[in-house]
Specification:
amino-acid transport, Amino acid ABC transporter permease, transmembrane, single chain, mainly alpha, cell membrane, MetI-like
């Protein structure tokens, strides 16, 4: 028996999908800003001399990169409250995404810094800049330029991974899709439309980030 597809039945539920999409966009923007800032700090720490805090940051990077995102999320949601750190589902989702992106972006940015000629550090000293000023003004911009496409791809991966936060009842796009499917039983239609939304969001995010990279960092297309 052939099943008839009925996309028209989804029209009454578009406000729910759009509300979930808006939550996903907000979560992605905040996680991207927080994760990249964390990655820059971590790359600076990991690129310097080996100290106790660089070892601690290295341990954090290895733990996050070698464990599933869903386990990290569950640890934050269900584990941290046992230590007295209680937060809402939205706060936990944002923290999990920032922590995850921070670890991956640390290594991506560090890779760009490692191939920076030592002469740039020496040039900074000659100009009378402190090590921090040299890092921010001389070393970091070309390093970001070199690894920017990889950084954009990682941000998109984290955005797509945000679908996992529906497991802790955070009402983003996938949560809305699951809710609509449970009410309408239109599994194929709901998830096909949701797939299209994620695809469009990924392409849009990539184009916006690459445009920003070309404008502010001189990244080549």
């Amino acid at each position: 028996m052939t099943e008839q597809l009925d996309f028209s039945a989804l029209w009454p539920h578009w406000p729910e999908l759009l509300a979930g999409l808006w939550v996903t966009i907000q979560l992605t923007v905040m996680a991207t800003v927080g994760g990249l800032a964390t990655g820059i700090v971590g790359a600076a720490i990991r690129s310097g001399r080996t100290t106790w805090y660089s070892r601690i940051w290295g341990a954090y990077v290895e733990i996050i990169r070698n464990t599933p995102f869903v386990v990290q999320l569950f640890f934050i949601v269900f584990g941290l409250p046992n230590l007295g750190l209680k937060m809402t589902a939205g706060e936990a989702a944002l923290l999990a995404m920032v922590v995850n992106l921070g670890a991956y972006s640390t290594e991506i940015i560090r890779a760009g810094i490692q191939v920076t000629p030592k002469g740039q550090w020496e040039a900074g000293r000659v100009l009378g800049l402190t090590r921090l000023q040299t890092f921010i003004r001389v070393v970091l911009p070309p390093a970001l330029q070199r690894i920017y496409p990889a950084l954009v791809s990682q941000c998109i991966i984290v955005m797509l991974g945000s679908s996992v936060v529906s497991q802790v009842s955070y009402e983003e796009l996938t949560f809305a899709a699951n809710l609509i499917q449970s009410r309408t039983f239109l599994s194929f239609e709901v998830y096909l439309v949701t797939t299209g939304i994620y695809l469009a969001l990924s392409i849009t995010l990539r184009q916006l980030m690459m445009a920003a990279g070309r404008k502010w960092l001189g990244v080549q297309a």
